[in-house]
């Protein structure tokens, strides 16, 4: 009694790959590519952008703490980092994530306690990127924002 379709042999296999085999290979390649991309270090430009965004968030946090406590808070750049005068020493971080980050120009900001603080900015650079700098600035009403420094 014949059980296979006419023209095919039960034990023979065609020369191509099945769809399932192709999907497994594509999944393995995707996982390996993701692992490699996560293993690569950030470029200096990305690290500078991250530092600027972090500083903007820290300045807004210090500004909010100054307004709620009613005490003036001042941000100052110091060697290897920065400090918030007027807040507890452990209230906010006081160091850069990247040791190559530096403040270019004046390094002091008044953050409150008044709701309108005046136009202020700080310019960040990196020792790894001498020609690149980012500005963290506010007009006094809006939050601190990061923009490219115009040369």
UniProtKB/TrEMBL annotation:
For the General secretion pathway GspH domain, which residue ranges apply?
51-120
Its annotated compartments are: Cell inner membrane
Residues spanning the membrane: 20-40
For this protein, the record's SUPFAM superfamilies field holds: Pili subunits (SSF54523)
Q: Which Pfam families match?
A: GspH, N_methyl
Which superkingdom heads the taxonomic lineage of this protein's source?
A: Bacteria
Q: Which UniProt keywords apply?
A: Cell inner membrane, Cell membrane, Membrane, Methylation, Transmembrane, Transmembrane helix
Q: Does the keyword Membrane apply?
A: yes
What InterPro entries does the entry give?
Answer: N_methyl_site, Pilin-like, T2SS_GspH
Q: How does it sit in the membrane?
A: Single-pass membrane protein
Question: Would I find Oxidoreductase among this entry's keywords?
Answer: no
Q: Which family does it belong to?
A: Belongs to the GSP H family.
Name recorded for this polypeptide: Type II secretion system protein H
Q: Which organism is it from?
A: Caenimonas terrae
